[in-house]
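Hello Y.,

Per our agreement to keep a running log of every chain we model this quarter, I'm adding this entry. I've kept the format consistent with earlier entries: sequence first, then predicted structure.
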Amino acid sequence: MNRLEAYDAELRRAGIPRRRRRRILTELADHLDCDPAARLGEPADLARQFANELGTAFARRAAFASFLALVPLGFLFSLTFAFAGIYSTDVPTGVTLALVVGVQLALVGGILALVRTWRLRDALTIPAAEAGVLIRRGVLGLAGGAMTVVALGLLVSGRYPGVHWSHPALGWTTAGVGAACIAAGMFVVVRSARLRPVADGAAGDVSSDLGLHVDPWRLAVWIAGGVALCIAAAGVVQADPIDGLVRGVGDGLLCLTGFAVLGRPLGLRT
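Predicted structure for the entry above:
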């Protein structure tokens, strides 16, 4: 086996995509043509370096693409419910729940993906654990977006006679554009996830995302308390303080539950 064949074998073993592998081998061949005795490094070490650098770039691209895919959906979704004038007398609980949960997951996943991508924007290589967090945050946001699109499509489809829209075309436009953007974002994420960096190291947590030095659980309690307080205050403004307090405590507990369940996979806590 000559030197190029050895490099090719290690690049394959590292999972470098074929097109990238050809480009790398072409550059290596050029170096060897100029200097047959050139010291290019051990094949395994060079393949690991390429895997780390390309895997880092791919993970950042996946997270950023997921955020960009959700932006048109969020914009059109806001317009739809601001101007389409949905009037409902009979919406199934499951559809309402899917719409509410989907919107929240898309918002949380998309913002978390963007924040971690921004924090790691200058890193040449990141640990495999960090790349996994970026991918999972992007997937969460896109999954929430997909849930939102499906629920919105059901509401605007005429399947439920109790749901009426003043401008149903806006609802269909939002669902169609949203579905196309989610599909495009998922395509990028799936392709990018094929190559991960192999560097060791731990992923950061939510405090590092925000540039703070605070225990993640303490920060989660503060956020959950803020959410509960805002909802309770809204209840007071609406002259229904008891309902506001109940909903505020419930939403605060849901925030803490989500932090406990998804905190590790999403890199919110270690």
